[in-house]
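Table S2 (continued). Query chain:
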Amino acid sequence: MKNAGIIVGLDIGTTKIAVIVGRNNDFGKIEIIGYGKVPSIGVKRGVVSNIENTVQSIKEAVAEASRKSGVDIQFVNVGIAGQHIKSLQHRGSMIRAQTDTEISQQDIDSLCNSMYNLNMNPGEEILEVIPQEFSVDGEHGIRQPKGMIGSSLDANFHIIIGQTAAAKNIYKCVRRAGLEVVELILEPIASTEAVLSEEEKEAGVVLVDIGGGTSDIAIFHEGIIRHTAVIPLGGEIITDDIKEGCSIIKKHAEELKMKFGSALASENKDEEIVAIPGLRGRPPKEISLKNLANIIQARMEEIIEHIYYEIKSSGYEKKLIGGIVLTGGGAQMKHIAQLTEFITGMDTRIGYPNEHLANNVLPEMASPMFATSIGLVIIGTDRYDRERQKMKELEPDQQEAIVEENPKKKKQKEKKVKDKTREGKKFTEVFLERIKNWFEEENE
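Corresponding output:
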């Protein structure tokens, strides 16, 4: 069982496709066994625009990660983002038949699953239902109702909605790359697991993941997710602005942004000049770093203004003691935290995923660029540990029953999630079988 507990995160981004293979070590930290990163050439603003190119990029990234880790990768946790993602708040309720018994996890799951029956606009589906606060017989503000006695169970839900076609295209690309999707996870949710602490979530904090094509926002208060949004602007549009403003090719524009870019023009001097190689024997082109910073600052101000608008729209602007945490590849821009503080007036820091990583991890893996990928692995390991713990608490015959009955339970999922169910069924059978085998081997 050398592969027991190994989880793979697949981040299909606009500029890169990253695969990270990891597992929990004895100290509860994520140990990165291997990773692969290749340019993404089939994704625009977080949405698959070319199936063949995306499949090819996934295969290359998976092959690299498999070679470095020595793991035969079959199952992956996949992140989903894109400008089509939106969210809403909804309140659900249920009347319990047996009021003299304790509220069970099955009651809670039943209430959560009923939210998938909400009517959506044509072409949309519910991707995720996140319970926020529960009420039992009118008693509000309950975080965990399990074990309580009551006749009615209510809850506020944060519901993530996306385009059905976008989700199906991701499933299609992953399947054609020879992989199976364990779970489709909203990327800003994954990033929060990698860079935010529980204290920040309790105090109130805004996570902003600045990617290549989109900037994802997640707002927490009192440990509960309150608002999510996706802004269709990211690092790629800054590169395009540099390309147009400096009259250079995109490759050189990207290199300029990465090596010399700054979000504050006032931090650069007028006499600072960098030379760009000319095309086909033409003389080198000189670029002023102050001019470069002016181009970057103008676009970054627009992105931050959009972020600030979402913060104000959420209604939690005055309650966010933890301020703003910037992560993602775009957060590596120099002076971006200072510009964000200047525009929003909120404390800002750069979010690094190194808090959850083992000590022997390569330094580049602690970059904000890999926050989403590492978050996918963290969510996967948490799920694995929970399922393993459940199996350990059961008798051997009950373990057999769960493995046998699980496909039937999957088929009973609500109609709204039938596609997700079909994709995850094969994994669940193998996943539970692996945990059962591990448990038997441990006893031996």
